Amino acid sequence: MWDFFSTVRHRHSVRHYQSDMPVEDAPLHAILEMACAAPSAGDLQAYRIIVVRDPAERAALAAAAENQQFIAEAPVCLVFCADPKRSAREFGERGERLYAIQDTTIAAAYAQLAVVAAGMGSAWIGYFDTDAVRRLLTLDTELEPIALMTIGYPAELPTATPRRRINDVVSFR
Ligand SMILES: Cc1cc2nc3c(=O)[nH]c(=O)nc-3n(C[C@H](O)[C@H](O)[C@H](O)COP(=O)(O)O)c2cc1C
């Protein structure tokens, strides 16, 4: 088992998957548990995570995401949806506008690292037609799809992408 720093360093976007290697229920459950272990404003977990395994639905998600075909290829696609009304009940406009999205993306980030720890790969997809995703998953109108995440066993060895220098993104005061 890798330590936390190695886990973070080994996470790279995977855009080719072994479509004949399913994601078993046990690791998927562990990944979802880690998503739900993330912090959230007021501990409200103002999000919903939809697990899409069905090949036809994955193909439809790929079509809704400008034909990013690896979405159809990966055996699982998680759809992270914010639930702004849930946060608004406690935190009003700030909860609706900010916290629900933060809750959702932190949960997704935890899930993405858990995928590495589970020996699989993932990609975060933000480029999709929100209404198309809403329609095809018949989502509750209160839910806002924020990110898709493919999960599966990699069929490629992705290389590390560069990052901005720490001093360009951090200010010490
Ligand atoms: C908000 C967000 C949106 C993204 N949208 C897409 C996307 O639509 N398609 C895609 O292939 N990758 C997408 N990515 C993945 C990034 O391209 C990728 O994380 C970045 O290039 C760094 O590469 P790495 O993940 O391998 O470190 C997205 C990532 C984030 C955080």
TrEMBL record:
Q: Which cofactor does it need?
A: FMN
PANTHER family per the record? NAD(P)H NITROREDUCTASE YDGI-RELATED (PTHR43673), NITROREDUCTASE (PTHR43673:SF2)
The source's superkingdom equals Bacteria
Provide any one GO MF term from the record: oxidoreductase activity
The signal peptide, as residue positions, is: none
Sorted keywords for this record are:
Flavoprotein, FMN, Oxidoreductase
Where exactly are the transmembrane stretches of this chain?
Answer: none
Q: Cross-referenced Gene3D superfamilies, in alphabetical order?
A: NADH Oxidase
Q: Which organism is it from?
A: Plasticicumulans acidivorans
Kindly give the Pfam families that the UniProt entry links to this protein. Nitroreductase
Q: Where is the Nitroreductase domain?
A: 65-153
Q: Which family does it belong to?
A: Belongs to the nitroreductase family.
Q: Which InterPro entries match?
A: Nitroreductase (IPR029479), Nitroreductase-like (IPR000415)
Q: What is this protein called?
A: Nitroreductase
Say yes or no: keyword Flavoprotein present. yes
